Amino acid sequence: MRKSATFAAAVLTVAFAFAAGEDLTAKQPSPTKDQEATPKNYVRHTFGPTSVGRAAVGAGINQANHTPAEWKQGGAGFGRRFASSFGKHIVKKTIEFPIAKWRHEPFFYRPSDKTGVKARTMYALTAVFVTHRTTDGKPMVHSAELASAFGSGLISRAWQPASTASVADGFESGGLTLLADAGGNLLHEFWPEIRHPHSATAARAAREGKLEAKEAAVREKEAAKAAGKKGVGDATRRGICPPSAWETGTRFAGTS
Predict the structure, then answer these.
(1) Do the Cβ atoms of 112 and 189 come closer than 8 Å?
(2) What residues contact 200, with CB distance under 8 A and at least 6 apart?
(3) Torsion from C-alpha of 182, 183, 187, 189, nearest 10 degrees
């Protein structure tokens, strides 16, 4: 398990290093209703079929790794590992929900509004550390994710056997949770393209085109405004049009 935790820390560290060149702090659009911290979403994301499936996958991995060894193999061993994995998930969401509600953090991954595979990948992987406030889209530390990952990792030591019950094992479990959540974020980020390659790509391209057009319009407006000011100034200096009262008053004050 410790090798797995070391690997998890290495992956997330490398992802954060690569993300250093990306603008992770840019504002993001407001979340949808299924991404907010509401009682309905708490039940859905805690006890839904996706959560059960994820717990089963985790139990299967631990079964294959024979971790913890005291639970042995067979159906009974898998049942214990599944109950442990799902119980830890329930603890995690129970910690995460009130913190997300209080700090206005999304309760579920919010896909980015970025373009390009690299930018979207880095956004998804580092979303376990950096999130965006649901009220105004400003960046903030993802405290609900961090607190719930390590909190559930430590609390779940209460029902673990001796070989995996230490505080160090709890922190390692929290690190693995962050890695699993980062992988889940990555899947959610690219799932529309995976599920419907043509329609999702076209929709994203259209959205990106609208954003680019909007940015270009803003740049043109600013350029026209700057050119207009320059033109008026040149015309005034050449005597084509009289100076404004403010300009006259400024020159008069400067010569007095």
Answers:
(1) yes
(2) 192, 193
(3) 20
Residue 114 Rama label (left phi>0; alpha psi -120 to 50; beta): beta
For 131, the 3-state DSSP assignment is strand
pLDDT tens digit sequence for 65-124: 999 999 999 999 999 999 999 999 999 999 999 999 999 999 999 888 888 898 899 999
Q: Which residues pair with 4 in a beta bridge?
A: none
* Residue at 70: amino acid letter: E
Contacts 24+ apart (CB under 8 A), 63-70: 65/1, 67/1, 67/164, 68/160, 68/161, 68/163, 68/164, 69/163, 70/161, 70/162, 70/163
Alpha-carbon distance 16 to 18, whole Å?
Answer: 5
Domain boundaries, the chain: 2-195, 208-255
Taken as a whole, the chain contains a residue count of 256
At what angle are helices 39-47 and 74-103 packed, to 10 degrees? 160
Nearest to residue 86, comparing CAs of 102, 105, 62, 107?
Answer: 62
